[in-house]
Design goal:
Structural class of chain B: alpha/beta
Shape of chain B: globular
Helix content of chain B: 25-40%
Helix content of chain A: over 70%
Number of helices of chain A: 13
Distance between the termini of chain A: 28 Å
Oligomer: heterotrimer
Strand order of the largest sheet of chain B: 6-7-8-3-9-10-12-11
Largest sheet of chain A: 2 strands, antiparallel
Largest sheet of chain B: 8 strands, mixed
Strand order of the largest sheet of chain A: 1-2
Radius of gyration of chain A: 23 Å
Strand content of chain A: under 5%
Radius of gyration of chain B: 21 Å
Number of strands of chain B: 12
Chains: A mainly alpha (302), B alpha/beta (350), C mainly alpha (325)
């Protein structure tokens, strides 16, 4: 352990964030996962510049290149590393564009649900009483049903579309945060510093969001990380079932669904590669989430 | 003391944790003669329980016996195959644990847990084993044993559960029972009962007893000999009356002075200054040195074990040679009464 | 125990009423019930008849009473597509889903508990780490894609198992089941594995955590000190303590297995009620969706109730305190 003396030396000037980063970095797998995730996000952001073709520009597609296996060459001489689908779309490009939609839906819905859930949970814990018991009953009721069922029913009512999927995923997720934040806030509320700021007669909003919320964040961060993965998986599932995003904006789930009929004739690549991409993203998120939980937990127990 | 039941020589049981090596037991020598009651006294963390578990080969990883020898009736147990250890456990060396709430499996009935102990060592029908268990329960003073056998542990009181544990330990008339603070978790009145019970049963069957405790008062009542443990080592060993009446090691003296006593009513209790050392960072030389009022320059060297008198051992450069002051004022009679092994402890022994 | 049972039943009844109100409000108050419950292809006379039958011309509270009394009689509307009572359609498909769900649960128990215990007992060795890594993968695999890959491997490439459908069934107590015929069993294997994998990963984690907790308990050490064989220590003393939390969680998860069967049934063309739900959603056959919703609510509440009771029977400590109440 050559690092022990160095860590001892830096200990004195270490900020909380540095300590957090150092503890997180103790797991090489988690760091690799984080790097992988960042790479995926960058690829999705810069998709138009890095992909060989724009899979939604019909002018760039050649039906003659349809259903080509991986590594085959097109008429034009470009190589399709991951093959093409029935429209002659380059699978690699389609996957990178699909990741865009999957990430936007997954991260966006998680963020919105986080805001709603945290607010509701904080308010419930802070004010207590009947408001709290009604809110928590609703949360318990919703959480007693699996997310996929709730989302399916919502989409059956709402119809298809990226916006509809977003709404459904937000409704599905908010309850997790409400419960997590309330649990943490109930513990924090009894601590002395909240008593102290209450005595200062600060506005309730200020107490809630400037004092109570930051101290409830660690468990929320852990839940949110894992939830992004869950949301991406759920969106993919809904799209696969045909109630998710429309065909004009194919996420990874829809790409996989498109390959379903070709799978039986042995043309595996149309479903296989988008699935691998989906799997890698979710695995990376879960591994990062696992490590976050391990790092943030001791502070919770303190 | 020619044929000792148990002979421990130079035992080291270390735990290889991430934070470093914990030298829980670090060079322990002990001997128990047939029918003898040895009290092993020490603070929590001194390694006394680990010593007991080492005998049975029940050290959980990351701990293991790194050195030394444990001979049970002449047979070496360190490095013995697991199958042999399993034959000995329960049948020839039994153990009673500290907390009766935790030693019985909460989801299994008493009969399941007792019968399996019988069948682990004897080939007999379940009905026979059951009868044996009922007898064993009767022997430790449990009324209506047939009914108790059908109970779950949580349906019994703490004292009752500890009696069940003792009954299990006595099932096969073992040559040695290791009792790891078996009365600490119990009410004072029940402590005395259990103490009396164990002592009587062991005397009846000639079973040797290794009684592990932090409570000198308890051990004074029942032990023939006492070994005092500090930071993984035995610091003093000798006949119970002599160790208590005239301790040689400063630590033993300090321990005795910190026990509330009849004769010192109104006086403040003495404390041992400082804290027991972390087993990760033991002081060099004598391990008691940082807390010892008698420590000198020499104590930076590890003190050897000396035998200033017949039958007594001490690990110290500057052994005390006077009885604890308050004991001189007291009549010598109570001391002798306590030290006589065959005598019953008074109910207020705790 | 009895007081506890009555209280639980009361809670269950309230939940059902709340859900009925929610569903009613969703259809009648927010949406337009004529769109939802009457086929878009119906002619004006049919619409008129349906409006009268459903009481849509009545005030809202009367509509609610009618909705409730219809639901109590088992009338949850008629499918547009099949022109059959929606509830009957669903119940016809229920055995297929239940068979699949039970098979998956059994698989996850018999795979997950041993694997989890091994991972717990050998948590610092390669075996334990390997099992945990596999369980993370099991958690992360998108269920539908995993099913397609199973089809690709075992049906398309190896050709060992059929790619979909239910196969031959034989009636068992009047209910058609497929696990008793060879053909049916072959059709059952892949979907059951697909449905079981996620839960197996969950069981592995629970069993591992339980094992690591139980193996440090005094009663395990005491059992060893009695000279009981290691086999018995693990299989009796440890297993029985681990089973209680695992069975409780799994019981509660049974509902989610039924819900997740939606995905597996779609991938493997398994003719259960999950596939019916998806088909109905895609065909805008809303009465079936509504009926499915009410039925699944009922099933979930039933499951929670049964799990609570079974739990109190399994754990002697809970059983006693329940009796003392």
């Amino acid at each position: 352990m050559s690092g022990t003396d160095r860590t001892a030396a830096t200990m004195a000037v270490e900020t909380p964030f540095m300590r957090f980063a150092r503890q997180f970095a103790e797991s090489r797998v988690a760091v690799l996962s984080l790097i992988g995730l960042l790479a995926v996000i960058l690829a999705a952001v810069f998709a138009p510049w890095i992909t060989p073709q724009n899979p939604y520009d019909l002018a760039q597609l050649d039906i003659m290149d349809g259903n080509l296996p991986p590594m085959s060459e097109s008429f034009g001489g470009t190589t399709y590393w991951l093959g093409t689908d029935d429209q002659g779309r380059d699978m690699l490009s389609a996957i990178v564009y699909g990741i865009r939609i999957s990430l936007v839906v997954g991260a966006g819905s998680t963020l919105a649900a986080l805001l709603i859930g945290c607010t509701v949970g904080l308010v419930a814990a802070f004010y207590g009483g009947r408001l709290e018991s009604v809110v928590m009953r609703i949360v318990d009721l919703q959480l007693s049903f699996p997310a996929i069922l709730v989302a399916l029913i919502l989409l059956a009512v709402l119809g298809r579309g990226v916006d509809k999927v977003l709404v459904a995923l937000i409704i599905v997720q908010w309850a997790y945060y409400a419960r997590t934040v309330r649990g943490a806030a109930l513990v924090e509320r009894r601590k002395e510093y909240i008593e102290a700021v209450r005595c200062l007669a600060l506005s309730h909003g200020r107490i809630l969001f400037r004092h109570l919320l930051p101290n409830c964040l660690p468990p929320v961060i852990v839940v949110a990380t894992v939830q992004v993965g869950n949301a991406i998986a759920l969106e993919a599932t809904l799209s696969f079932l045909g109630v998710g995003v429309p065909i004009t904006e194919p996420s990874l789930g829809l790409l996989i669904a498109n390959g379903y009929e070709y799978l039986l004739s042995g043309q595996y690549w149309i479903s296989f590669f988008p699935g691998v991409a989906l799997l890698l993203i979710i695995v990376c998120i879960n591994l990062v989430g696992d490590q976050l939980r391990d790092v943030l937990n001791p502070r919770l127990q303190r | 003391m020619t044929a000792a039941v148990l002979e421990i020589r130079g035992l080291r049981t270390w735990f290889f944790t991430r934070a470093g090596i914990v030298r829980a037991v670090d060079g322990v020598d002990l001997e128990i003669a047939p029918g003898e009651v040895l009290g092993l006294v020490g603070e929590s963390g001194s390694g006394k329980s680990i010593t007991g578990f080492s005998v049975l080969g029940l050290i959980d990883p990351p701990g293991r016996i790194t050195e030394g020898s444990i001979r049970f009736r002449g047979e070496e147990l360190v490095g013995a195959p697991e199958a042999r250890l399993r034959q000995l456990r329960g049948a020839h060396v039994a153990m009673i644990f500290q907390d009766p709430m935790m030693t019985l499996n909460p989801v299994l009935r008493i009969d399941t847990q007792m019968i399996e102990a019988v069948l682990a060592h004897r080939d007999m029908r379940r009905a026979e084993a059951r009868a044996l268990c009922a007898d064993a329960l009767r022997r430790v003073g449990i009324p209506a044993p047939e009914e108790r056998l059908k109970a779950y542990p949580h349906q019994l009181s703490g004292g009752m559960r500890q009696r069940v544990a003792i009954a299990i330990a006595l099932l096969h008339d073992p040559a040695l029972i290791i009792a790891d603070e078996p009365t600490t978790a119990l009410d004072v009145t029940i402590q005395a009962q259990i103490l009396y019970e164990v002592q009587k049963l062991c005397a009846e069957t000639g079973t040797s007893l290794l009684w592990i405790t932090h409570d000198l008062a308890v051990v004074a009542g029942i032990a023939d000999r006492i070994a005092v443990m500090y930071a993984g080592q035995i610091v003093e060993q000798g006949p119970a009356a002599e160790v208590i009446g005239r301790p040689l090691h400063p630590y033993t003296l300090a321990l005795l002075e910190s026990v509330p006593s009849h004769n010192r009513r109104g006086q403040p209790l003495r404390q041992i200054p400082g804290m027991a050392p972390s087993p990760l960072a033991l002081p060099a030389g004598c391990r008691f040195r940082p807390r010892c009022s008698r420590a000198g320059e020499r104590c930076h060297e590890p003190p050897p074990v000396s035998m200033p008198e017949a039958g007594r051992e001490v690990r110290c450069f500057h052994p005390c040679n006077r009885p604890p002051p308050e004991k001189t004022e007291a009549a010598p009679e109570p001391d002798r009464r306590i030290s006589r092994p065959s005598s019953r402890p008074s109910p207020g022994a705790g | 125990m009895l007081a506890y049972l009555i209280r639980r039943l009361f809670q269950a009844a309230i939940t059902i009423v709340v859900m009925a109100v929610l569903v009613f409000v969703g259809i009648y108050a927010i949406g337009n019930p004529i769109d939802v419950l009457i086929s878009p292809e119906a002619d004006p006379a049919e619409i008129e008849a349906a409006i009268r039958r459903l009481g849509l011309d009545q005030p809202l509270w009367r509509q609610f009473l009618l909705f409730v009394s219809n639901a109590l009689r088992g009338d949850l509307g008629t499918s547009f597509v099949h022109n059959e009572p929606a509830l009957r359609l669903i119940i016809e498909r229920m055995p297929a889903t239940l068979e699949l769900a039970v098979a998956a649960m059994l698989l996850s128990i018999f795979l997950g508990i041993p694997l989890g215990m091994i991972a717990g007992l050998r948590h610092d060795r390669a075996t334990g780490r390997g099992i945990m890594a596999a369980s993370i993968l099991g958690f992360s695999l998108p269920n539908f894609w995993q099913g397609m890959m199973l089809i690709m491997l075992f049906a398309v490439w190896a050709g060992w198992l059929p790619s979909g459908g239910r196969g031959d069934t034989v009636p068992l107590f009047g209910v058609p089941v497929s696990f008793l015929t060879l053909d049916g069993l072959q059709h059952l294997i892949l979907p059951a594995i697909n449905l079981a994998l996620f839960k197996t990963a969950l069981v592995v984690r629970l069993a591992r955590a339980g094992t690591r907790e139980v193996m440090l308990q005094d009663y395990v050490k005491f059992a060893r000190a009695k000279g009981v064989s290691e086999r018995r220590v693990v299989l009796v003393h440890m297993l029985k303590n681990i089973l209680i939390p695992v069975v409780t969680v799994l019981g509660l998860e049974f509902g989610s297995v039924i819900a997740f069967a939606v995905v597996t049934e779609t991938v493997f063309a398994w003719p259960g009620m999950g596939k019916l739900l998806i088909d109905s959603i895609l065909n805008l056959d809303r009465p079936v969706v509504v009926a499915y919703l009410m039925l699944i609510v009922f099933v979930f509440i039933l499951i929670n109730l049964v799990v609570d009771i079974v739990y109190s029977l399994l754990d002697p400590r809970v059983r006693l305190s329940g009796r003392a109440e």
